[in-house]
């Protein structure tokens, strides 16, 4: 517990989602006087009315904006218009109405998809504007990137305290395993476990396996978000990650090993790899608010696989109508 949180009312949008549940739990542990996590069925944050009602009902001191509409490469390719509009309109209206409601601090959760397609590794926050985002998720990434512009403009004109965090791909127990919208780790775990249980001779994986990604365990991400909300008040965006990358081929081999799937891996090179490489420079987060991810990748994968195997068929797909949380 810290004295900072003991007098704070905190509104967490997306607080019932994958990362949101962890952030809510961390805030309560830290001693926040009240933590509110309204559901989308009660307050539609894509509408001005839904936003005005949730702010009037919650009267927060701090707002952590985690709600987002997201998915993997396939979902991004099928829904570019929806992913752009819903993420942009939700964030833009929420920030404006939070300013008018005199919320003391607004924490925006951005996305690594905002970085240009060919960003030098490791990605530094200064690289955000050095090119266009990777095409398969550019509409989502740019919608989130505009919230960085809005936050900096509001800080300059109105003195509104907006901070912007950029997490890499998250994973962990409770992730979304729906094949239509899941990201790479839950998608691969599901494929391998299901194929093992069904005695399938092979699994099919999109792309060539040459692309690389960085992954942050969901509990570590929650710790970083809460730390930043408490300790950081600057205008510049801040990466949240582990500072290490793994190729998709290596990732598949690791998940195959941990799930005990003994069949063949078939690569479908007609499908896109997405961004060629992805790994963050995480030094700013460590310097500014002492964030350092502590969960090893293998431990995190084991916990995620164990969770999926223990809850298969028990409703571990995100409920219909609930916005997914940020990547």
Bin the helical content.
40-55%
> How much strand?
5-15%
Shape: globular
The Rg value, from CA coordinates, equals: 19 Å
Structural class: alpha/beta
Low-pLDDT runs of 5+ residues are 317-327
Question: Quick summary of this structure?
Answer:
Helix content is 41%, strand content 14%. The chain is an alpha/beta fold.
Description:
The protein is α/β, with parallel strands linked by helices and about 325 residues long. Helix content is about 40%, strand content about 15%. Helix 1 packs across helix 7 and helix 4 runs parallel beside helix 5. About 50% of the residues are buried.
Topology:
Layout: E1 9-13, H1 18-30, E2 34-36, H2 48-58, E3 62-65, H3 73-78, H4 80-100, E4 105-109, H5 138-158, E5 162-167, E6 169-171, H6 184-198, E7 202-206, E8 212-213, E9 215-217, H7 218-231, E10 238-240, E11 246-247, H8 248-259, E12 264-268, H9 283-289, H10 297-311
Helix pairs in contact: 1-7, 2-4, 4-5, 6-8, 6-10, 8-10
Name the features.
single chain; 327 residues; alpha/beta; two-stranded parallel sheet; disordered C terminus
